[in-house]
Amino acid sequence: MDAAIYGRTRQALELLDGGADPQAVDEEGRTALFHAIIQGSPVAFLLLERTNRLDAVDAQGENVLHVAVRYRQKRCFYAILNHPGRPDLNARTRQGATALLIAVFARQNDLAQELVRAGADVNIADDAGVTPLMAAAAAGKRSDPHLVKSFLEHGANVHAKDVMGRTALFYAAGKGWVDTVSLLLDAGASSDAADATGHRVMDYTFGDGIPEERERIRRLLSMRQ
Is-above-0.85 flag for pTM? Predict the structure, then answer.
C-alpha cells in the first residue's frame, strides 16, 4: 500500500514481481489501486496493467471508477473506462450514487458525457431519488444546458421524482436557470407538478437569484399551464 500511496513505482514493481497480490485490501476494503488513484500516483497505471479485475468495493460501496471520478483523476478515469476488467458503469455506492451521478455533482461534465457515451444509465437515482438529470439541472452557479440536453437525448426521464416529489424542473426553476427550464419544458416536463408538500414549480421561482431570469421562468411556466 505504501508504494501506491507515495508513488514508489520501482518498489511497487518489485513487490508485484515478487508475488504481491494487487487485489489485497486494507481495513477499509481498498486495494493499492484505490490509494494510488486518490493520491494521483503513477503507480496506478502499473497496477492497472497488472490487474485483470477492477470490481473491488470499499467500505463506502465505491469502486475505482467512483473514486477516479470523485477525486477528479481524469487520466485514471480514462484508463479504467478502457480497461477490459472495468467495473459495472451502473454500480451504486452505499448512498446509491453511480459514477455518473458523482461526476455531475463533482462538476466533471466531460467525464459525465464519456460515461453516457460508454453506456451509463441516465435514470439511476441515488437513495434520495436524485437522478443525474436533476443534479445537472441544479448544478453549481450555472446549470449546463448541454449536459441536460445530452441526458434528455439519451432517454432521461423528465417526470422522475426524488423522495420529496420534485422533478428536474423543480431544481432548475429553484436555481433560476432559464435555458435549462426551457429545455425541460420542451422535453415534456409538467409545469404544474406539485412536490410532496403541495408546492408547485411556480412556487420555487420566488427565491434568491437574478430577478429578471426568475421572471422569465415564471412566464415560461405560465405559457405551459
Answer: yes
